[in-house]
Amino acid sequence: MPIPYLKPTATSQQLIVNGEPYLMLAAELQNSALTSAKYMQEVWPKLRGANINTALGCVTWEQIEPEEGKFDFAVFDKVVADARAAEIHLVLLWFGSFKNGISTYTPAWMKTDQKRFPRAKLRQAHGELKTGDVLSIFHTAAQEADVKAFTKLMEHVKDIDEKHSTILMVQVENETGLLGDSRDGGPAAEKRFNEPVPSDVLKMLNAERENLRPELQQTLRNFSKSSKGSWPEVFGQSRQTDELFMAYYYAIYLEQVASAGKSVYPIPLYTNVWQNYVGADADPNMPVVVGGGGTPGEYPSGGGVVNVLDVWQMFAPSLDFIAPDVYLNDYATSCAKYRHRNQPLFIPEQRRDEYGARRIWTAYGTYAALGTSPFGIDTLTPETNPFRRHYALMNQVSKHVLAAQRDQTSVGFFFDELNTTGVLDTSPPTHAKFGPWNLTIERSFVFGKAGPGWGMVIHQGGAKFMLIGCGFQVKFKHESAGFTGILSFDEKEVAENGDLSTLRMLNGDETRGGGQCIMPNDEPDYGGFPICVTIPARTCVAECEAYALEDE
Q: Is the domain covering 5-117+139-180+240-408 a CATH 3.20.20.80 domain?
């Protein structure tokens, strides 16, 4: 069998494992969980019980290379063997030079040798410099050591796992960037900042100007093809210029690490992003400081935020994609932005509550996500894990979801809880078009207070559709016909191989008299209405066929 790889589709890529497309129903462990095989003995059953098929967990540099040049994989090997026995795949998180904008997972021999491994300098008031808890990327020794360690890790992964494919992907570093300042203010960084901008940067920005993210185009508003000189001379003196400068050199740093690892074992590699948090993407109910802020340095400056996403994609080509962590940013907007240049979407960190779980249907259904991954999953029991139900259903229908992702024939959506009065609805209807059919997807009708909802609709060809989820309804309208109706609406059961069989034929109240297909919520509110017209959710899977009549 080939090792795990990414296979192109019409508009994205899919992860292939053991020769077959694989949908990651993933979750990330707490920061250092994977450093203890004993601790993980408690966790594997929790993951299985929550229908999680892939765990994201760390490999820390300080653990595998406690003495320079001497590697210890004993704990790591036990963890991988136990994951394989539990039938859980792994995505490894390389906590090497960088973790959350600092360097706390580097080995002791690196932390204590500032002369050989200089730290970044954070600029303070009155020109003072403060030593940051993060390696400077403008010196070579740390990068060279990281390259050696990561290469050793990937060689070891190949040795113990090439025949098994327990390990699917590797994340290179974690939320890279500089906290506390928009750029490194140390002497080596200052020298580089005031040297001519590298020609490959100017060439890329000129060649790709029309294809760049709008956020980067805004930074380049004063940039022209004839621009030459230092970074501030070409781009202006600003925090955005600082961020662009740092992004280029961070991307080069990670490219050296990633390319070395991929040369010995070429499974998919990526890095994740602590997003900036400002403007239309921010939750107005949360203070800016919760999300890390909207200014470079408040969030890790130089990391792969959308402002500089193109720089990362161009100058770190050994990374197969750049992945957003989505906690407080608008979920669907983040999904859309990180499909830039048709890179595949993977969300390595997100909320683990029901609010977060509802949103995964948009990631999988609309943006063809390889997987989603709520963070801190090992401290939940299966009974308290909201993802248990969502992943169970997603697993049942994964064959159909993967086929729809390949053909771009699905749409995902979610509807949040209404406020106490039921007046303010922050989840508008979703509109989709498949061939001549216009779909309006909205909350499931009830006579009382409407509840939350989530799911996806898959176009099966012609006028046939598959409906997955609960708490929503779908109205169909043919683009040219005068009348549109529902020809059939069947509740489905899903066999172990993913095949569907009819459980019940639905009609009448389940279609509001033929007007729409209703996928009811768990607890429909009858609002005092004396007739219980809406039944609770059951299998959460249905198929329907619409039809249209021309006006005579």
A: yes
